[in-house]
Amino acid sequence: MKRQQRIQFITCNRVKDSYGITSGLFNSASFVCNFLKEYGFESKLNAVVDSNSIDKAVTEYDPDVVIIEALWVPPAKLKELLAIKRHSRCRWIIRVHSKAPFLANEGLATQWIKAYTKISNKVEIAPNTTELTEQLAAAFPEGHFTFLPNIYHPPVFKKMHVVNDPCELNIGSFGALRSMKNTYQQALAAIAFAESKGKRLRFHVNGTRAEQLGENSLKNLRALFDDSRHDLVEHHWYKHKDFLKAISYMDIGMQISFSESFNIVTADFVTAKIPIVASDDISWMPWFLKVSPTNHRGMLRKLNIAYSFKKISTWCQTTFLKIYNMKAQFTWIKELN
Length: 337
Description:
Blueprint: E1 6-12, E2 16-17, E3 20-21, H1 24-39, E4 42-48, H2 54-61, E5 65-69, H3 75-82, E6 91-96, H4 100-103, H5 109-117, E7 123-127, H6 130-139, E8 168-172, H7 183-196, E9 200-206, H8 214-225, E10 231-235, H9 240-247, E11 252-255, H10 264-271, E12 276-279, E13 290-291, H11 296-308, H12 310-336
Parallel strand pairs: 1-4, 1-5, 5-6, 6-7, 8-9, 8-11, 9-10, 11-12, 12-13
Antiparallel strand pairs: 2-3
Helix pairs in contact: 7-8, 7-11
């Protein structure tokens, strides 16, 4: 009897804090891994210290498919792994979780992708958008590119009953602070919106993870709220279940960045039944809650829609996410069977 496909996801656990492994990549891989288990595949997620630990992890699990989450394995190391006889039958997939504008900020991204395409036809590069899949296939015709979207498959979450101060407006713009995340522009829109409602704004961000010049974003955010009647609330990085609890206290979410592919934070707000205004780059969100990251007045209009029509907004968000997930799950099952 032929065994079921055995899938192994591998992440790098460099990003840690006192709460354990909490990176977005780890959560993303967990969602897909758990879905595949429920569907009937053998699936496992390993977080390794660095690329030198991959051989041991793969040898112990003996998978049919190895999925490396993101661009952190040097091409020379990957070539070395494929040359090992016991790994020769494995299908190797490297997932890319960003669109082209964000990749441009990763200094080695293009160099490594180009090098991956020259290693072996057993190496596949799997962007999470059809757009980047097509772009890379055109740029590197010798490569093997496969579209593998995100799957959002969190544990069951029971929304808490929350009563906020009616004089306050809690808006959350969470995630690692990076220049591409556009957090400062969102804060300006949030302040203007709170002023229009005659409320004191509490603008919530993650203050403990700044990347790609994100330190400047945080510095400017702090200056913006200094000596203001509005507050900047800085949160530590949460485990996923605790993050869902934290955002349950928000009135609205904002994820209006310059470049996005899926965006787990947006999906988390949907799960927590909190309306969120997102970048028009997040294709699966309802159109009436999406806006250009440079359109200040547009942000104010969309915040007003989310705030004034919470029930219809959250219902539409939930429905659109379910439809996206059905399509994504079908894509994975088709690709792995």
